Amino acid sequence: MKVYNTLTKQKEEFKPLVNGEVKMYVCGPxxxxxxxxxxxxxxxxxxxxxxxxxxxxxxxxxxxxxxDIDDKMIKKANEENTTVKEIGDKYIxxxxxxxxxxxxxxxxxxxxxTEYISDIIKFVKExxxxxxxxxxxxxxxxxxxKFNSYGKLSGQNIEDLQSGARISIDERKQDPMDFAIWKxxxxxxxxxxxxxxxxxxxxxxxxxxxxxxxxGDTIDIHAxxxxxxxxxxxxxxxxxxxLTGKSFSNYWLHSAFVNVNNEKMSxxxxxxxxxxxxxxxxxxxxxxxxxxxxHYRQQLNFSEDLLYSAKAxxxxxxxxxxxxxxxxxxxxxxxxNEEEKKYLESLSKYKNKYIEKMxxxxxxxxxxxxxxxxxxxxxxxITINSSKELVKEALSLIRELGMPLGILQKSTKGTLEDxxxxxxxxxxxxxxxxxxxxADKIRxxxxxxxxxxxxxxxxVRWKKI
Length: 465
Description:
Four Helix Bundle (Hemerythrin (Met), subunit A); EC 6.1.1.16; metal-binding; ATP binding; ligase; zinc ion binding
């Protein structure tokens, strides 16, 4: 299995620290609002990567944090005349609601930064003792020039970073590139007692500390959106490796931005959508399909038209699933014969292609193509004359390949039956109202879909032909 490592700027063979296990840390949301579709792509991508590792037999320790102390949260709490903790509690609950709706599996651990304050203070204290950090009036800064390989993730040396960075002038810093790992309390802010007075952690130190505490000094994969590579992940590397003297993460994975209608998503352009808004109109399978239809390192264009296109694609696959579910009930022969065994074996080529593409840096776009090739083959070759066992195995293969992508796991049976019964009710009402044109149209539309209605003394019955 090969993954693209942002640290080395190339694809590398994935070699875990412990054979058969993956220690993976993904930067989660700052919980002051509902998450938007850009965040949603990141969560879906790394949920899929986690699922695929598990599909390939790895045990995955998957950690995704909640940043629950931050400038944005303090601002939000002040605006709503409440506490930072109440804001955090509220939006963590809302995160789970939306993530569950998107079929994002729960992490092994979802640590909150405020649960690790004592560990963060200890972390900062050790950096000060080692000479990598210094205190000024209750603030503690990390000295970037003391860490010789600062800039290795972004691929720039510290002089280039200084000239290109937008850094506010702060006379208290020894160098403009130094960053706060502990912040002195300001009026009205939540704070904790520390060796440097009342204060709170800086953003970057939170993830370093939680990853170290839960997964150890060195982890296999650290991941997040591409906007986090610098400065957040760069700073994590510096403070973590300065503390331990060990490699912090062996592989760094970053997902690309989401554009909306070919423009970068931003509040100023008013093209900012929350995941919840999209979920009101589109099913989770559709949203995940769109998010995975491009490679995770490529920018993804997002629009309602593309969502409808994704919906049509998902429905094509579910039509096949529905046909197979019906065939399981309708076919008369149970046992598979030799010819069917050979055919079933031939379907493995699609699974092999799927695995080949996913093993190549999680190429979900080409993996989806392999699923469509499988669907086409099944539609051509599996009929009412096939055996029940063959039909079940074909359906199982579709679901197996959809599972790591978090799609294609639902049954069509209840949905189809509910829809047909609803149309029959509409037809009965139309007949009662003497709207025979509408009644005939409903009957003809159902017949075109292979559904025949029979008017009997006991009521209307239907069957699939």
